[in-house]
Amino acid sequence: MKYVDVLLPLPLEGLFTYAVPEEMEAHVGFGMRVVVPLGRNKTYVALAIKVHSEKPDFAVKPILQVMDTTPVLTPQQYELWQWIAEYYMSPLGEVYNAALPLGLKQRDGFKPKMETYVELAPQYHNEQALHIALNQLARASKQKKVFIDYLMLSHWDEAFSTENGECTLHSTLSEVSRDELMNYSHCTSAILKSLIERKFLVTYEKEVGRLNHAGEPHLENVKSLNEAQQNAYNQILLSFLKRDVTLLHGVTSSGKTEIYIHLIRRALERHEQVLYLLPEIALTVQIRERLQQVFGSRLGIYHSKYSDAERVEIWKKQLSGHPYDVILGARSAVFLPFQKLGLVIIDEEHETSFRQQEPAPRYHARSVAIMMAHRAGAKVLLGTATPSMESYFNAVGQKYGLVTLSSRYKDLQLPEIQVVDIKDLQKRKMMQGPYSPQLLKSIKKALASGEQVILFQNRRGFVPMIECRQCGWVPHCTNCDVSLTYHKNIQQLSCHYCGYTYQVPDVCPCCGSKELKGRGYGTEKIEDQVMEIFPEARVARMDLDTTRTRSAYERIINDFSAGRTNLLIGTQMVTKGLDFDNVSVVGILNADTMLNYPDFRAYEHAFMMMAQVSGRAGRKGRQGLVILQTKSPELPVIQQVVRNDYEGFFQDMLEERRAFRYPPFYHLVYVYLKHRHDSTVSSAAFDMGSRLRQWFGERVLGPDKPSIAKVKQMNIRKIVLKLENGIDMKLAREYLRMAQDQIAKDSRYSSLQIYFDVDPL
Description:
- Helix content is 33%, strand content 23%.
- By secondary structure, it is an alpha/beta fold.
- The longest helix is centred in the C-terminal third of the chain and has 19 residues, at 678-696.
- It is globular and about 80 Å long.
- The model has no long low-confidence stretch (mean pLDDT 91).
């Protein structure tokens, strides 16, 4: 009798043993998917890990089906999963659940995803007919707005030109998905349905999730490196002879991407595969085009905005005899199978988006990629203008190689950064909302000159909160310990933690006052105000609310790149390595919201975001201008951003981190406890802290309530563990697990959740 130990896609520790029916014995092996029963009536797609003849000392159920003829998981991948589970203290089943595309975890397999697209009805395919349509919609204002939005997104609004008295169709039109139109217009399905029923618009189905068919590679499109780039390229290769990981510290617009392309070409010439990681899906839009021009169909794209069907197809292609040679992707791409990995490029390595937070496992893609490369004997290049403290510490300590690229491409000057003291201007009543006179003047001048502007505000929504002017009441989420954000477009209050929405009250429920006013500024409000102040501007907004779909990302970036929009308002999405030729002015509306965040990394993250968004200005042509608005211009970090003094900033932060026992001198582990009853979680956290102090002593801080102490009706407590470099981390994890198990066995704490956040950001 054969038995098989399987891994289930559930947050459970260890493997589970099942019997293999005789007729299936010849067909099951490591890495194959098998259907297994669990409980009374549930079945799951599990992964076979070990086939053996050791009969368990308990009754076992048989597997129901073998789904594969060849493995979908390689031994190297499984070893990496085990490392992730151990290092980040997460059940192996959670790693499996995060790693495999959904279509590979379903018994029915997957079907190519179909998406509904919208197009203009044929009878309106001329300019005169479009005017008639708009007149017919005059009394249906909401339908008219959606119709106009469709014309803008598809570029029908600029499709006609008049030459020699005749109107001709000349523009290249764009396809618009139903979801994208609804996302852009903030309209209901009923409004769009009315436009379709009235035959102004028609719909059609289109398969999404196809593999890349970009054609033959054209290595002749690789551009020559200038002297500074060539020198950096040579230094990287020399560094790779001595070290597995090298940090390329290159200022913004120094041409790091071109160096990456040369390194990729070299790897392909050596018959190696390359993984190119980016922190944000938005960045893949621009980088993809550059890489496809060179590597054609040898390039594959992999990230969460792609359809599940496509991700399954890519996964299977990577296991085939003809895999992609280059994979471009966000953090989930570290889970893909590679057969001959030779190089990993982690661009914008400092970005916090590489850290997976929810759901578990809470891993850092940079660390996972480095471990994956180490196991494959591959080299890793970390690239950024603003290195993370940990990476730069490792580089100056010679654990990593370090290559510096200090000049911009074609010797373009770094932008001029003007610091504006908005505290003083507010006292003198010279501010127009969140805009200083200097910023408004610079925007007006740039737009008049045909140039582009980026405004950075790291808060989405219309206003962060509303408040009663009479009694100070602020609406809070009933599920979470947070105030609600007002979104004007949907006329609702929203919780950014649980997603719940609430109607905006007409009067204050505490005092009955009607004086409910917004406090602060979100990107939505900035957009409204900017369109009012600069009616000639063509404004776009890039935040979580406007980029729900993959095509929405691409359209916003492509429209700004092509000049169809000239003023881009965004959250931290706009700081992340985007390359626009015509941006002359960048406005940082309020640096203090980043600097005053209650976290030891606040200055590090603020420096990075300000330096990165500043780097979007003046990337081609003449020097750009950055208006940095703050109430604290005297802070050293502000002046370090102005001087682009990363080394000075690093040294200041290093001394502070050493003094207060923070990374890179210490490892942090956060222990979170959650329960519906506050008294239960409080008692459990006290017990957990006491047990941990028996082993770790003063290294344990807390328990305390975190800044957000309730999320989705779960009360939270947090314990912080500071472990000095060199400590036995394996033993430390064993103690943490022992404490967790002891608490879990206490009947008082049933339904208590305990989880660990290792190396948190």
